[in-house]
Structure formats: structure tokens, C-alpha cells
Amino acid sequence: MLIDYEFAFYSVMVTSIIVVFWLEALLPLEPDNWDLEHLGRNFIIWLLAFACADLLVGYYLVDIQLFIGQQPFGVFYWLAPPADWVLILLGLILLDLSDYLFHRISHHSRFLWRLHAVHHSDIRLDISTTLRGHPFELIVSNFWKFGIALLLGVPIWVIGFREIFIFPFIFLQHANVKLPARLEKALGYVLITPVIHRLHHSINREEHDSNYGEFLIIWDKLFGSFRIPESLRPEKYGVKNLESDSYQTIDGMLLTPLKIYHHAGLPQITKE
Ligand SMILES: [Zn+2]
Fold first, then answer.
1. Which terminus has fewer CB within 10 Å in the chain: N or C?
2. 92 in a domain, yes or no?
3. Residue 57 lies in a domain
4. Is the residue at 265 inside a domain?
């Protein structure tokens, strides 16, 4: 398959950001929600995460371009390599399931929660929350993703294809956007919509321990983690005890995994 992966990756990403920014201005859930400092901090942490992953393990873990058209390993490969369109479809579905599992484990594993809490500790939700994550989380989650893909025999280029395909939805899920109710409802039969994902950012633990899906809604419904949002947004975003500015600054976000600890079942408990 001929594709300039890097060009596609960056052009879809930049286009998604521009379109979702425009939607935030056009259909805001909360008007006048702009906060340049918030946008800047989240953008910088993303740049750091990206640079870190690049320096430590190479561009986005591996140069996907090198893997296009190759599949030397994995269950599908051993059985019988299916046609490209079957691989793409299976890859999209199985990688979505693997992301759901990783996300769910991240809420219940002490180590992973320390990293994932950086994404959740954002006390306001907008397009920039999509970019907010600890550099080590990006690295660990990519090891998981590539490991699963290699084990199953999903070609690495399918990971790249999926990333590009779901970019617009991931940005939209965090955006300060109020979609028309009928569109939100129609999309919600199949996908994780902004309203469904917002509940996952609630400060209330029962609410943020639900709706783990990244793209398809089926996994939450199948594995009992789906929670119906009762309003367009939860009362409050963030993580209990991580609301202060010391967890919102760049160095605060980077140090969050070291500063928090949790007892079993109480991952929000923090130690200053
Ligand atoms: Zn989460």
C-alpha cells in the first residue's frame, strides 16, 4: 500500500485541530471558555511527550513507513494472510478493543494510573485535553499497541491507518462543543461521543471509571462499563486532590506520577 504516512499523519492531525477549533467557536458547550494558558500548557506537554517518545524509542516508536506492505509475524500471518481490506477492518476492531482494555487497566493499575492521572487531572475540558498526557504514558501505551498488533499479526501500517482515521473523533470527544442533539444521539449508537466521553472526565470516581472506549462504544456495552450520561457534562472535571495549580503546570504534570500514591480502590488520594 502506497502511503506517505508522515504526511497523512500530520495533515489529518492539523486539519482535525483546525476543524474542531472552528466547531468550538461555532457550537460552544460553554461560551467564552477560551483559556490561552490552559491551551498552551497542554500543547507543551504534548510536544514534550512526542519529543520524549521520539528521542527514546524513535519516531512514534517505530517508523511506520518502513513497515508498510510488510507482515512477518503474528496469528493472522500464520493462519492465512487475509486481503488488505479484511486486515484493515479486523485491525480497526481489534486495536480498538486493545485500546479499551489498556485504558480500563490504566484506571485500576497503580503504576498506570499514576501516568494516566495526568490526562484526567485537567480541570477544564477542551480540544487541548486530547493532547494532555504524560510522556511515559505515550511510550507505555504504544508498546502495548504495537505488542498486541505484532502478536495478532495486524500489520503495523494498520495502526498508522487507524490513528489517522480516528484523530478527528478523538479531538471532538474532548472539545468544548455542543453537537446537535440528534447527531449526538445517532453517533452514540456506534461511537464514543463528546457527551459520553465527558462523563469519563468527571471528578466523581464512579463516573470516571466508566466509558473507557476510544472509538467504538460496543466494548463498554459488552463488558459492562457503559454509563449513560445524565447531562451534557459532569458537574466538575478532574481528579480529587489533583485540582490545584501544582498539578496543572508543566512541571506539575510531569511530576504527578511521583507525587500521587493511592490505596487500593482509592487512586485519587494524594500526598503533597
Ligand atoms: Zn481514563
1. C
2. yes
3. yes
4. no
Range of the domain at 39: 5-258
Query: Which single residue is written with the C-alpha cell 504514558?
Result: 137
pTM: 0.87
* CA 211 – ligand 1 centroid, Å: 8
* β-sheet bridge partners, residue 266: 263
Closest alpha carbon to 194 in 13, 15, 24, 18: 24
How far, in Å, is the centroid of ligand 1 from the Cα of 202?
A: 10
* Total number of domains constituting the chain: 1
Q: What is the pLDDT of residues 77-101, one digit of tens each?
A: 777 766 778 877 888 899 999 999 9
Read off the pLDDT of residues 227-265 as tens digits, 9 standing for 90 and up: 999 999 999 999 988 988 889 999 999 999 988 865 434
Backbone CA torsion sign across 71, 74, 76, 77: positive
What is the CA(212)–ligand 1 centre distance, in A?
A: 6
Distance 22 CA to ligand 1 centre (A): 26
Distance CA 150, CA 97 (A): 15
Centroid of ligand 1 to alpha carbon of 250 (angstroms): 20
Q: Are the C-beta atoms of 67 and 157 separated by less than 8 Å?
A: yes
